[in-house]
Amino acid sequence: MYMAHQLLQGKKGIIFGALDERSIAWKTAQCVVAEGAQIVLSNAPIALRMGKINELAKECNAQVIAADATSLTDLEALFEKSMETLGGKLDFVLHSIGMSPNVRKGIAYTETNYDNFLKTLDISALSLHKVLQTAMKLDALNEWSSVVALTYIAAQRTFPGYNDMAEAKALMESIARSFGYHYGFAKKVRVNTVSQSPTITTAGSGVSGFDAFYHYAEKMSPLGNASAEDCAKFCAMMFSDYTRMVTMQNLFHDGGFSFTGVSQGLIEDMQKVFTETAANG
């Protein structure tokens, strides 16, 4: 059972991207509120209609403010309303935003639709830049605030089913580093990305071959796959004062997957397959 420690007592923030109870943003909202924070929940208007965010809002005593994260006008209104609702500047932001029209439509990477590709980059990566730029313009974040964006190791390594989301995550990580530099000198605001294990969420499950890869990663990782709940706790720590000197980092939260070449369990599985193939050959 999760025991809160009031790490975020008195802090205020925005959680982008909570869709349903399986999403990391949903778990993070629950976690930060348990840790003493006050929040505003935001998602695109279409996602608000599809998801269950009003249930979460009631549980967290939070206001829901619709915003298209690719629209500067929407983002300005979101930050202004959030500061008004929460009674002052903010201390943290979670960016859990990503969508690829090419993935949704089953278009292969080598046959990509470039209009879709640009939408993927705008929604999944440039939206972070727009969030940060808007926050800086409005002076919406207190000094030593923390911004965390969720990413995946496909930004560094090739996973075929991840398609153009790999480029989007790579771009987003670069934006976090670049904007983290400028925001750090300007306002002591820290910006990091968290590279999470494959996680059973509505978004993750849309990737081709996800189930097989999830089990592969589970067997590869010394600690197993990190759950959405564990990622939420990690994000809460990143929003706390205990990590105030951490910025411009891509932090792997994946049970050791990112630095494991191969596990003994996988070797044994492959040996079984080879043995069976040879016996049937």
Q: Any idea what the CATH superfamily is called?
A: NAD(P)-binding Rossmann-like Domain
Briefly note the CATH topology name.
Rossmann fold
Please tally the β strands and state the result.
7
Helix/strand-derived category reads: alpha/beta
Element order: H for helix, E for strand: EHEHHEHEHHEHEHHEH
Work out the count of structural domains.
Answer: 1
How many angstroms does the end-to-end distance come to?
51 Å
Task: Give the integer mean of the pLDDT values.
Answer: 94
**Low-pLDDT regions:** none
Largest sheet strand order: 3-2-1-4-5-6-7
Radius of gyration over all CA atoms, rounded: 19 Å
By DSSP (H or I, 4+ residues per run), the number of helices equals 10
Name given to the CATH architecture: 3-Layer(aba) Sandwich
Tell me the overall shape: globular
Sheet with most strands: 7 strands, parallel
Level-1 CATH class name: Alpha Beta
Into which percentage range does the β-strand content fall? 15-25%
Could you describe the 3D structure shown?
This protein has helices at 24-34, 45-50, 53-60, 72-86, 101-104, 114-137, 165-187, 210-220, 228-239, 264-280; strands at residues 12-16, 38-43, 63-66, 90-95, 141-151, 190-196, 250-253. With 281 residues, the protein is of the alpha/beta class. It has one domain: Rossmann fold (3-Layer(aba) Sandwich), CATH 3.40.50. Strands 3-2-1-4-5-6-7 form a seven-stranded parallel beta sheet, sandwiched between helices. α1 links the parallel β1 and β2. It is globular.
